[in-house]
Amino acid sequence: MFILFYQILNSLGVDFSKYFCVFLYIMWGVIQTISISILIILAFHYSYQYLRDTLTPKKTKDLVGFQNQKFDEIIAELQQARQINDMESELLEFAYEQVNNISEST
Fold first, then answer.
1. Residue 99 pLDDT > 70, yes or no?
2. End-to-end CA separation in angstroms for the chain
């Protein structure tokens, strides 16, 4: 880039050393501005990250324990349904026995 700038100025017959110092001064200002901006952005970013990590509680998900709890709930629900079915079948058997006893006694 500097070589191209130098060639353009020489082809125009311009005193290169005078404008080169101005060019370097402007470029130094741009580089300083970019560097300071990046440093400010990084400072805010890491400050925010530090505050977020230290001041907020950690949310951890217990995937294994949660799945075991759901499995136990399903098993309990199925056992309860089986007990209800057993009670219904016992009630039906009792009712059939009563009907058979009544029909045999008559």
1. yes
2. 118
